[in-house]
Design brief:
globular, alpha+beta, 19% helix, 6-stranded antiparallel barrel, 7 helices, 34% strand
């Protein structure tokens, strides 16, 4: 489990079809490597990967075919950009963002980015499978970064977040351009709410989960 607060940046390189090497610069490696051990979980652009080998400048991790199919990891090397890195949450640690599982739901696409006096407003599209969990003022992880939904298209075709300068400068969100793909993970709480509300016995009719239903029952 993670919190969506990025600790360092690294560069990713495919060693073969499933193994990836993540390398950090000298100033970045000291932010993540001193406390890293074999078998630890690290969120790489929001994807939970297990450390297989520790290197002087980074580590090696493996990604399953399902992970590569569902996320942008298989495309990162072509971008020659940076990946966001966060080690797993320790018991008793601060949860400064929100609970991020590192289980990416799918990818989204940056549509627009606009610099304002206080932040960068970024709009993304998302598939319906992800958009159904996105609510105004709710949480979402974009490339592993915990962000708050600032605006949402009523038809759920797009959503907007406001990225403060501290986050923008220290994550790879600064490298995104319109058309860039990102990893999206919806808030786990929304998934559990949906599961509980849709639970029924074989003799009960299932009521459709919708924004109107959530409002009626006090969830929105």
């Amino acid at each position: 489990m993670f919190t969506g607060l990025v600790q360092a940046l690294g560069q990713i390189r495919a060693l073969d079809n499933y193994y990836y090497q993540i390398t950090c610069s000298n100033d970045q490696k000291n932010l993540i490597l001193p406390d890293l051990a074999l078998g630890d979980s690290v969120a790489v652009d929001g994807v939970c990967l297990t450390v297989m080998e520790i290197l002087p400048q980074g580590f090696i991790a493996a990604a399953s075919p399902e992970t590569l199919r569902r996320t942008t990891l298989g495309q990162r090397e072509a971008d020659a950009g940076y990946v966001n890195l966060e080690t797993s949450l320790r018991v008793g640690g601060k949860v400064g963002g929100h609970f991020v599982m590192g289980h990416v739901d799918g990818t989204g696409c940056l549509e627009t980015v606009e610099e304002t006096a206080t932040s960068w407003e970024m709009s993304f599209t998302a598939t319906e499978a992800i958009a159904r969990y996105i609510v105004p003022k709710g949480s979402i992880a974009i490339n592993g970064v915990s962000l708050t939904i600032a605006d949402l298209d009523p038809t759920r075709n797009w959503f907007k977040v406001a990225v403060i300068p501290h986050t923008y400068d220290r994550t790879n969100l600064r490298d995104l351009r319109p058309g860039s793909l990102v990893n999206l993970e919806a808030d786990i709480l929304g998934k559990y709410v949906e599961k509980l509300l849709n639970y029924n016995s074989p003799h009960q009719a299932r009521e459709e989960l919708s924004p109107a239903f959530l409002v009626e029952h006090g969830y929105l």
